[in-house]
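Design request, tokens follow.
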């Protein structure tokens, strides 16, 4: 891959990456427009992309990410954010610990105050790939996901090992792991946004709510999945179930639809499903009406299911080429 690669999103050029390579690391292009950068020499800034239309006027100094400990730090750089206008006042500094996962906007990367011996592993990918709206980015970048959280404990070591495997050698296993990494990052972004909206620390969900969410995920393909069946399975009233979801900032129906859409979006990227029709994929994950599925898919992700399938397939072809 060239040090200045270009990523296409929905037929548009998202920007020119200046991640480059260094003597202490490398860069690897994976399927679906995912780039991985590993650096042993800590730069002043994270890998960035130029804004398509830089806003006029002076910009405030970038947010500083401060790490006083040596170790390994993980970053997820979000492309296709539209180059949101920078804040007029300085952004608050953020302190990171080894193993933290920090989302950032590639148009406005933070400055780094890190020890020389720290190691950075950066995953660069389009917002569309994670199902994010532009308005989600400022909230997503407010705080890191720490290894102390449930998903942080799972993803921090996985992403670290995956980056080493992907950069070191090309293999079929590496490509398959890339698809899984994108799926896991989608879940991480979704959960992190929900935690930010609730104003609580990540990973503090009650055991009952975790059991309910696991129950829903295992039965997404059941078109008859409903609040009544969920409440009955967990020996609670439907009223109490709705109360639990209000505390999560959502509803039962909205969460089921969001989970089903996420699975459909993932399924549409699989090589094993490339011969399945859009309607068949929708039915596979509990949507009774293909028309309704296409409408809510576009409303959620900004493109139709067929456009998403083409977009994901193009990223795969570019990686293989």
């Amino acid at each position: 891959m060239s040090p200045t690669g270009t990523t296409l999103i929905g037929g548009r050029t998202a920007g020119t990456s200046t991640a480059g390579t260094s003597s202490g690391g490398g860069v690897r292009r994976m399927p679906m427009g995912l780039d991985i950068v590993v650096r042993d020499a800590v730069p002043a800034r994270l890998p960035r992309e130029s804004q398509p239309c830089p806003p006029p006027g002076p910009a405030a100094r970038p947010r500083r990410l401060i790490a006083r400990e040596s170790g390994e730090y993980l970053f997820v750089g979000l492309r296709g954010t539209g180059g949101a206008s920078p804040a007029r006042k300085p952004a608050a500094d953020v302190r990171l610990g080894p193993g933290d996962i920090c989302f950032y906007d590639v148009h406005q990367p933070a400055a780094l105050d890190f020890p020389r011996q720290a190691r950075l592993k950066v995953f660069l990918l389009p917002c569309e790939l994670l199902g994010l709206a532009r308005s989600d980015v400022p909230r997503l970048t407010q705080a890191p996901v720490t290894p102390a959280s449930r998903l942080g404990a799972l993803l921090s070591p996985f992403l670290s090992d995956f980056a080493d495997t992907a950069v070191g050698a090309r293999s079929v296993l590496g490509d398959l792991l890339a698809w899984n990494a994108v799926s896991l990052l989608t879940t991480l972004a979704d959960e992190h946004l929900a935690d930010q909206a609730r104003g609580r620390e990540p990973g503090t969900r009650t055991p009952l709510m975790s059991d309910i969410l696991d129950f829903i995920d295992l039965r997404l393909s059941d078109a008859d999945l409903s609040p009544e069946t969920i409440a009955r399975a967990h020996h609670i009233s439907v009223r109490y179930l709705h109360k639990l979801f209000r505390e999560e900032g959502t509803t039962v129906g909205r969460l089921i639809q969001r989970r089903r859409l996420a699975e459909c979006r993932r399924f549409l990227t699989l090589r094993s499903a490339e011969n399945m029709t859009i309607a068949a994929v929708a039915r596979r994950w509990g949507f009774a009406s293909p028309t309704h599925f296409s409408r809510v898919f576009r409303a959620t992700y900004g493109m139709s299911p067929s456009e998403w399938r083409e977009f994901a397939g193009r990223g795969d072809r570019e990686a293989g080429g």
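Comment from the thread starter after seeing the answer: thanks! The beta strands are 6-9, 12-16, 26-30, 34-39, 64-66, 72-79, 94-95, 101-105, 111-113, 119-126.
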